[in-house]
Design brief:
The complex is a heterotrimer. By secondary structure, chain A is an all-alpha fold. Helix content of chain A is 81%, strand content 0%. Chain A has one domain. Chain A is flat, with a radius of gyration of 15 Å. By secondary structure, chain B is mainly α. Chain B has one domain: Orthogonal Bundle (Helix Hairpins). Chain B is 74% helix and 0% strand. The longest helix of chain B has 31 residues. By secondary structure, chain C is mostly helical. Chain C has two domains: 35 residues; 208 residues, no CATH class. In chain C, 64% of the residues lie in helices and 1% in strands. Chain C has a two-stranded antiparallel sheet. In chain C, α9 packs antiparallel against α11. At the B-C interface, α1, α3 and α4 of B face α1, α2, α3, α4 and α12 of C.
Chain lengths: 84, 140, 275
């Protein structure tokens, strides 16, 4: 049972590394924000598996709701594609 | 080591090393990419990864015969046997309280930085740091 | 170009899988995760709710909230101050621009998104506000608390600001002035609750300290831990209510200012006067 929970945590951690790499090397900033929200969802699952329900209730509105909203307003008011 | 301990250590090692790699990739993104918005995205990833490290420190191995539980006592009213069982199966509550404060402070910093980047775009017309430094050089 | 990125991603994952074998052989110094808790964690878990150590406990079955608002209450006080300073900084940057949004809202035009989005938001708005208030009010019994409920309420209010347009929201009553008033009420409530027991002790004549919750052996004044059989945990429930109000209002205020239209801001920067 313990091995099952830790295997799930390891798979989700590898998924978060993949999402981070895709977010940093992406030229279209809107797609980079979507990958960053995917990485935050993976971190929320890791927080749940580490038995921290208080942190999950803070992290999901803040990192999956407020950060992408702020970034999308920022991108709309400035440039969408990273130059060079 | 017995093989059960080896498997558990290997899986926890995967989680720890992949979080270190996350930190490395976001640090690279922060100083190598020229766009101010990409630097801000890398900063959020870096601060979130530091918070996951702090919670990971508070985890423990499962005691024999039961699962680990969050630090909330669910069997009320409290009797001495229930409190002893609670202490032997709960994870550490102190890192969770400190990370709560850290997430709020990170939110305040990121919101303020986003507002400042909007004002920089209105003043210079671009968010590319190389072009901004060239414009500032010509202004002086 | 796409194959290059996929190749680098696969190489990173293989690197992680190989390097964690070194952790198995002892690279981190010890076997992870540790087999038992530290003594400090056990002390906090013993003292969270313990009717037999009545002068050391918090009488709240939720250990994390009891650390955040009672054992380490000053940390949370200063974190609230940092969030307050960031929001005041945003208000100061947008000084002089907000009046143009109020002027534009006087014309009764129908803005916002399609009727489908508006009706769905009308249905989910009371549901999410109820969930946010429930999370905040039960913070001393179940996982939750002031900041969790406040940020959930801020998400649904941001959705209302975006789907019905900003002008409609200002007409209805979600303005900068009302959000600033609600935030100041929440912060005033937190400040009063933190010195509540101090003033009570000074009036009666006993010794007391700031952020005190339950009576201690050297400071025998406190707020009752249970009202009529229901567990209330002293000042914890008051802190949760006021913090939820302050955080929801503060984050909504930030988004009201950030969503102002670009042409209004540029004309204010050029120097046109707005009445």
């Amino acid at each position: 049972m313990e091995v099952l929970v830790l295997t799930l945590m390891a798979i989700v951690a590898l998924l978060s590394t993949l999402a981070t790499y895709l977010a940093i090397t992406e030229r279209d900033l809107l797609t980079a924000v979507i990958y960053s929200a995917l990485q935050s969802a993976a971190y929320a699952i890791i927080f749940y598996l580490l038995m921290a329900p208080d942190i999950v209730l803070v992290y999901i509105p803040v990192a999956v709701g407020l950060y992408p909203a702020v970034f999308i307003v920022l991108i709309k008011k400035s440039e969408r594609y990273e130059g060079g | 080591m017995s093989s059960d301990l080896q498997i558990v250590t290997y899986l926890t090692g995967i989680v720890v090393i992949s979080l270190f790699v996350n930190m490395g990739i976001s640090l690279y993104g922060m100083f190598a990419k020229p766009s101010l918005i990409k630097k801000l995205i890398a900063l959020t990833i870096l601060s979130d990864t530091a918070n996951v490290f702090a919670i990971l420190v508070g985890y423990r191995r499962w005691p024999s015969g039961s699962v680990v539980k969050p630090p909330v006592l669910t069997e009320l009213p409290p009797t001495p046997e229930r409190i002893v069982r609670f202490v032997s199966t709960a994870v550490d509550p102190l890192p969770q309280a400190l990370v709560l404060t850290a997430i709020v402070i990170g939110l305040a910093v990121i919101i303020f930085l986003a507002v400042v980047i909007m004002q920089v775009y209105r003043t210079y017309g671009t968010t590319d740091v190389r072009l901004i430094s060239k414009m500032r050089g010509e202004r002086k | 170009m796409k194959y290059e990125r996929a190749l680098i991603a696969v190489a990173i994952i293989i690197f992680i899988l190989v390097l964690s074998y070194a952790v198995t052989l002892g690279a981190m110094g010890t076997a992870l995760p540790p087999p038992d808790l530290r003594l400090l964690a056990k002390a906090y878990l013993w003292l969270a709710i313990n009717p037999w150590m009545r002068n050391l406990t918090v009488m709240s079955p939720e250990a994390v909230t009891s650390i955040v608002w009672d054992f380490r209450g000053l940390d949370t006080f200063f974190e609230t101050a940092v969030l307050y300073l960031a929001i005041i900084g945003t208000v100061a940057i947008y000084r002089g621009v907000y009046s143009s949004s109020k002027r534009a809202s006087a014309s009764e035009e129908e803005g916002g998104m399609s009727p489908i989005a508006k009706s769905v938001t009308k249905i989910t708005l009371p549901i999410v506000i109820a969930v946010a208030v429930a999370i905040a009010l039960h913070g001393h019994l179940t996982p939750g608390g002031g900041f969790q409920g406040g940020s959930t309420a801020a998400v649904i209010l941001l959705l209302v600001l975006v789907i019905f347009s900003l002008q409609f929201s200002i007409r209805v009553g979600i303005t900068k002035g009302s959000m600033l008033a609600l935030r100041s009420t929440g912060l005033l409530g937190i400040a009063v609750t933190s010195i509540l027991v101090l003033i009570l002790g000074l009036l009666i004549g006993y010794q007391s300290f700031i952020f005190q919750n339950q009576p201690k052996s050297y400071a025998p004044v406190g707020v009752p831990a249970a009202l009529d059989g229901m567990l209330v945990s002293g000042t914890l429930i008051l802190f949760n209510i006021f913090e939820c109000l302050a955080v929801a209002a503060g984050l909504t205020l930030t988004f009201i200012l950030v969503l102002t239209r670009e042409e209004d801001i540029r004309s204010a920067m050029k120097g046109d006067k707005h009445e």
